[in-house]
Amino acid sequence: MGDAPENDVLRLLREAENRSALTRNVEHLLSSLNSRRTDFCAVRQGAAEELRMLVRHPANFTSALTIKVGETVLNCLAQRNEQPMLVQTLLHILSDLIIDSQTLCHHLHKKNMIKTLTTHVSIYSNSVPHVKCLCVSALSVIAECCGPCCRQVVQQSFYSVFNCLKTTPENERSMLVYIIAVHTMLRPDGGGPTIHDPTDFVETLMHIYHRYNIQEIRNNIVYSLMQWLSLHPTTEHASALMKYPRILNTLMDFFNSHNKEEGVPVLRIMGHLIYAEDDHVRAILDTNIITAIRCGISTYSIRMKVETLWFLSNVIAVRDPAIAQSIIEDSPDLWDVFIRCAYARSFKLRREAMFCIINALTALDESYMNRALHDFFGKLIVDTFEEFHNSPWRMKYVIEKSLLMLIRERIEQGSAGMIQAALKLRFFDVFDHKITNFLQHRIVMIDRNTVEFEMLTEVIDEGEKCLGTLRRIELAFEDLIGGPHGDNGMEVDEPVDVSEEIDNSTPMEIDFDLD
Predict the structure, then answer these.
(1) Which Gene3D superfamilies does the entry mention (predicted)?
(2) What is the C-alpha to C-alpha distance for residues 106 and 148, in angstroms, rounded to an integer?
(3) pLDDT grade, residue 439 (50/70/90)?
């Protein structure tokens, strides 16, 4: 035991000596790389190869040494007359370094790294295509670093990379590199490129999709289309995609032939098409996507269910109420799915289920409203607000809008209508779930937060503001029972148990991205 401190000292000394030796070796290699003697080509190539082997173990490098290597490599790449073999090795070194060091990536931005790589894409486009491929790969690595880096790459390099898709690559691997780069540049936090000709963009990607029967290439193309529409959910972009022959059949083939998790981009694309233009919904429904969902939704993961419900809420929300009616009437099991998911512990799943229900109730007749109340609505309102009463306003808005929608025909009739609305809710057991406690709690919260109240003024039915409506419903309940219902001590049933289908882990962190 007494020798332990001495052994630690020796170990530290050896590590320091090794780092010092590594630094000296790297600096010697960098000195060789910097040489401009024409008879040193072989020496410089050998130095680059040895340096490439060393940077595969970045933990051995200090940050200062990493930056020094990066700067030297970039300076060499900036020279227009370097040997292609040396450029190839230098590109490997640069990519390996910036993958492991975001700091270096940001530092080299100031040294015109993106401009240098983009220039090489043009220089080697025809003469040495594999060097061009490595340049595109390096640009993809930079775009993957972070949102700001991606924006810089998009601004300076997107069309240079996109044009690579229009050429015939030397092999399938090169095409995969190009399409991955385009996919990466379309990341949501990168802002996305401005596509001047959406039709050309779609046709280029779909030509590659049908030319290469390679799953990884096709996956990246479908994800690229998804991200492109997510960034630009406009009628122009949606129409450009819909004009491509048999595009929906191609997407359905992709959806049916892949693992369901890989079908997420298809649901997103179709949902964005409907969001951009209601007229697309008929063509999308003709693909039998609803049937495919019905057959598989019971086996979907939480994430896949969230995406599926997001898609269905877009379908049901179209202006033609006959769409929602036909879906629910032809697929009554989907209504049951909405109800089960509305009790999920996953916030995202519950939220998307609620939007499906709200959109459906907007179009469906009174019998479905009654069924909604019978099945789950009273208790869902109370349970949801007990869980989310301190969360931001969106979830509260969703539930309150749902409640008011269910009794909207009564709200229009004034005070007498409020009494009838209260009777209706009481008849459907909402009364027994202590709805007045919920209403009182919401009134207090709205009174305390005028900003929230301003947000909730969207919940209006024929001019009735949310605050006044909630108060009138509460008073109607009290008129029925002669006092606040919360004092009667009635028991509340246990929540519906969907643990076998819904994730029982800790509830997900609340995320209010509603795209």
Answers:
(1) Leucine-rich Repeat Variant (1.25.10.10)
(2) 9
(3) low
Residue that has been written with the tokens 């962190």 in this structure:
509
| Domain encompassing residue 268 | 197-287
Q: For residues 466 and 458, what is the distance between their CA atoms, to the nearest angstrom?
A: 8
Q: Which residues contact 51 (CB under 8 A, 6 or more apart)?
A: 26, 29, 30, 33, 69, 93
- Copy the structure tokens of residue 286: 């003709």
- DSSP one-letter code for 344: -
116 and 74 in contact (C-beta within 8 Å)? yes
Rounded to an integer, what distance in angstroms lies between the CA atom of residue 159 and that of residue 154? 8
> Which residue carries 């289908």 as its tokens?
501
Q: How far is CA 308 from the centre of its chain?
A: 14
pTM, two decimal places: 0.71
Cα first-last separation, the chain: 62
Digit-coded pLDDT (tens) for 444-474: 554 554 434 444 444 333 334 444 555 555 5
Each residue's pLDDT tens digit, 127-140: 788 899 999 999 99
| pLDDT for the residue numbered 169 | 72
Per the document, the length of the chain is 515
Tens digit of pLDDT for each residue in 216-237? 999 999 999 999 999 888 888 9
CB of 313 closer than 8 Å to CB of 361? no
- The distance from CA 438 to its chain's CA centroid, rounded to whole angstroms, is 34
Report how many helices (DSSP H) and strands (DSSP E) the chain contains, helices first.
28, 0
What H or E segment, with its residue span, contains residue 97? helix 84-100
What's the number of domains the chain is made of? Answer: 1
Beta-ladder partners of 464:
461
* Contact indicator for 234, 276 with CB cutoff of 8 Å: yes
Residue 273 lies in a domain: yes
Give the residue-averaged pLDDT of 381-405.
Answer: 53
E strand or H helix at 340, and its extent? Answer: helix 332-342
What's the CA gap between 358 and 399, in Å, rounded? 9
Model confidence pLDDT, tens digit, residues 138-196: 999 999 999 999 999 999 999 999 999 988 776 899 999 999 999 999 998 888 888 88
Residue 34 or 253, more confident: 253
Evaluate whether residue 205 is within a structural domain. yes
**Cα dihedral 93, 96, 100, 105 sign:** positive
> Is position 507 within any domain?
no
Residue in 255, 229, 249 with CA at minimum distance from that of residue 241: 229
User: What confidence score (pLDDT) does residue 152 get?
Assistant: 93
Could you tell me if residue 29 is inside a domain? no
**Cα-trace Rg, the chain:** 31
